[in-house]
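Hi team, as promised in this morning's meeting, here are the two structures we talked about. I've kept the exact order from the run log so nobody has to guess. The first one is mostly here for context; it's the second one we should focus on when we meet again. Sequence first, then the predicted structure tokens.
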Amino acid sequence: MAFDWLTRRQEREARRAAVADRVPPGQELTDKWPVLHYGNVPRFDAEKWDFQVTGLVAHPMRWSYQEFMALPRVETASDIHCVTGWSKLDNRWEGVSIREIVRRVLPLPKARYVIVHAEGGYTTNLPFEELNRPENLLAYRHNGEDLEPDHGWPLRLVVPHLYFWKSAKWVRGLEFREQDERGFWERYGYHNHGDPWTEERYSWQEANA
């Protein structure tokens, strides 16, 4: 029994050492996917669901669920890092590339920021250049299976280079703007940017930047 426990510990330590360059400071690896969100899991009705892009774009768009699911599909792989201190490596995502959306709506030159709108009035905010990266997508599948409702079904944003609260669950739209506006957790004390490699966790750190 003691030998088995020691072996498992050695295996965990060896794994951590092997991927040390992929784990930001202050993070611990997990094979699980903790469920963290504010409020209740929303009900999904495919007949009423839509996804909209508004604001400073040449072509504002609205897709029904069927129309959105017919958009070109991409597959990506990434690590994710939660501000609460866990990291989960080697996630495979399927969904619609952010750049596919950007190509269709054509943001105007003044569109420097994006407000991400989700169910229940939840928002988060990103500079347009942070959103418009090739690895970012609007995902509906994870590791070969449809997202669980707890993890954002039918659609969640995935922005893996920032702390995972920026990858909002239950996304319903993007609003392109000239001026920034803090989102839900950003108003409640989280960092406005959220880089895990420099541990941008809390808003009080912004004054020290």
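And here is the second protein, the one for discussion:
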Amino acid sequence: MSTEGTAATHEVAILAGGCFWGMEELLRAIPGVIDTDVGYTGGWVANPRYEDTHHSKSGHAEAVRIVFDPAVLPYEVLLRDWFFRMHDPTTKDRQGNDIGTQYRSAIFYTTPAQQATAERVKAEVDASGAWPGPVVTQVVPEATWWPAEGYHQDYLRKNPGGYTCHFMR
């Protein structure tokens, strides 16, 4: 289901950590990342639009769907060295000035192995003391993926200098 359209040597990760523009820009530059797509997942409204995600109207998170080569970029490394460093996983429903459930920190696992890895890495990051508070990242099963509107795809490439609250910490 999650690997449809990908080669057998590729995996799919779905990550939410605030506005998808900044996450996509950082993720696409990681060696081993093959493709990225921004969209909405984890909510109850079918075929949501950007406006539907605000004020918890749809329950969806802004997220990035990442196709990656696990031989180059193991899932654990993607989470530990990148995802948990590119956003603040201790702020519930918020990243920087972006506030709301659509900006929550979440890992939407696509396999039981991803679930186990995500829970273990989350616990390790939480215990590391790298963050001033507890890690609130949700580890939840993948949900229906709804691609975001075209103007959101590759947004920061189309709009250099556009708003982002993501940076490597």
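Starting points for discussion:
Strands lie at 11-17, 33-41, 61-68, 94-95, 98-99, 105-109, 138-141, 146-147.
The mean pLDDT is 93.
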